[in-house]
Each structure stands twice: as structure tokens, then as C-alpha cells.
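Board work, copied verbatim: Tyrosine recombinase xerC
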Amino acid sequence: MFDAMLRGWRAQQKSRGLKDETIDPRERLVRRFLEFANDYPWQWTPAHMDEWSASLTGEKHLAPSTIRSYQGDIRLFTEFLIDGRYGWGPACEEAFGVHPVAIAHEWNTLPHLQDYEGDPEARPFTREELQRFLDYADDQVARAVKSKRKGALAAYRDATLFKVIYGWGLRRTETSKLDVVDFGRNPKARQFGRYGTLNVRYGKAKKGQPPRRRNVLSVMDWAVEAVEDYVENVRPRFGFPDHPALWITERGGRLQPSSINDRFEAYRDALNLPKELVPHSIRHSYVTHLTEDGVDRRFIQQQVGHECDSSTAIYTHVSDDFMNTALSKALAPAFAGV
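↓ predict structure ↓
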């Protein structure tokens, strides 16, 4: 009966256009909940949800957003079971003398109260920190070349990669999946040549949906110069001319997000920068620094692929100098006649 329920739920989700990458983890979660409850779905009660949620918080120490997602998946499964259109209630009543009930409600699930629930310590780089970081990455190339040791190409690749993350405000995975052909011309910015725009094909997807695409316009000339030099003079030295990836390994594979993490942490720790700085902090820095430079907020929102301005606002951590300048501009009309 339980397996038949899962098959029916899968068919329902398939009919809504959801992909296996979304459905499979949901099924695994339901099986884990079954194992935790030690009862079948037609025996589940709200108390099972209470105990399971408490274990996620107190024992596994999962983030609120993760717990909410898990609770939501169990809610979806049980709502499918109690929907009279699918007949599971009468079937269970006839077979077992009991029927499934709703086990997730407003008093035992986490509400979504705010847009951002990440680590409050997360922040962008200051301009000085970012300059130190990028300079250190460049220094590693010079050191590798001078010592004639293996790794100079990889060091050059990674130094350029971090500049691209900042120069186009990218996420780590978006960066990893870039191909050489993703750069293109922008007729409104001919000075950037074939690097006037970047087609991001693997943007962050909504749950159950394919990756979202966006075009990011080039705005930093020094970043364009860096990637142009890499593509034309360094990337070919890796070999593998038929491989489409922008960031390629010395063995001919695509550079993975985990490798970006490893290199970032090595450089950050070597500089004794705060542990709170992560690869995503570079993207935050892009938003913050453009805001401080007076770039239109709507333009920045489009560049980073945010649907809502509130998401862009979360990324923005402007400096005290910027806030003081903004305050002075806001107060100037009031004090004009004083």
C-alpha cells in the first residue's frame, strides 16, 4: 500500500511538470519519515511531525529553511493522501480500519517570516579586502612561474575566475558551468569587443524548474581585460581545444564548484581574512559596490537575476561613508533655507 501511495504521488507530481530531480529527493524524505515514525502513513499523527521536527532542530541542527522545506514535502505527501479525489482514505479504512489524516499544521511547522534566513555573519568583502584577495591570487601565478613548479596554469585560471565572479556578479555554480562561447558582443558597449555581455545559462532555478537564464552586461573594463587575456593566451595552453568549458582542469575536465571553494578558502585563510567570507561574498560585493557607486538599483537587480528588489536589498551592505552621503543628500532640501 505504501509503495502504491508513492507511485500515485509521483504520477501527480509528474502531471504538474515536476522533474525527477525534484520528485526523487521528496520520496527519499518520505521514506526517512516513515522510518522515523515507525508507522505507516495511515497511522501517522501530528505527534509524529512534532517529534520529527524536534529531532531536526535539536539533534541534526538543520537550518530553519531546510526544516521548513522538509516539513513542506511531508505536508504535500499527506495532503495528497487525504485528498478525496485519489481514494486513499476509503482504501485505508477498508484495509486497516483507519485512514490518513493531516499531520502538518500552522502550530507544528515553521512559518516563513522573512526573506533572508542565512548566516547573519555573512557579508561582502570590503574594497580593501577584495583588492588584497585578488592581488594574492595574482601573486600565486607569479610565484608558480618563478619557481617553475606545476600549477601555474591552474593558478592563472583561478585568479581570473575570481575576477569574473566579481566582475559579473555570479554565483559559484553559475561560474563553474560557463562555456567560452557564453561571452558575446554588446552593440552599446563596443569597447568590450566580444566580451560585452555574458550569457548565464545555469542561473538559480526555482524548485522543480529548469535553470534560469540571464544576460549580464559587462561593466568593469579591467575584468573584461582579465578574461580576454585568459581566453586568448592561457586557456589554450591547457589543451583540449574541443572542450567547451571556460574553466578547464589540467586533466581536461570542467572545474567543479567544490574546487572553487577549496581555492577560495586557501587564499582567504592565507590572508587571515574572516571565516565569514565565502565565495558568495564576492557576489554580495558586486551588488554592494555598484550600489555605493550610484548604479541604478533596477539595473543591478537585472544583472544578478533577482525577481524582487527585496532580494537585491538583502545583498547590499553599503559602507558608513555611503550611508552618510545618502543621509546628507536626503536632508539637504530640509536645511536649504536654514
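The chain has two domains: 2-96, 127-320.
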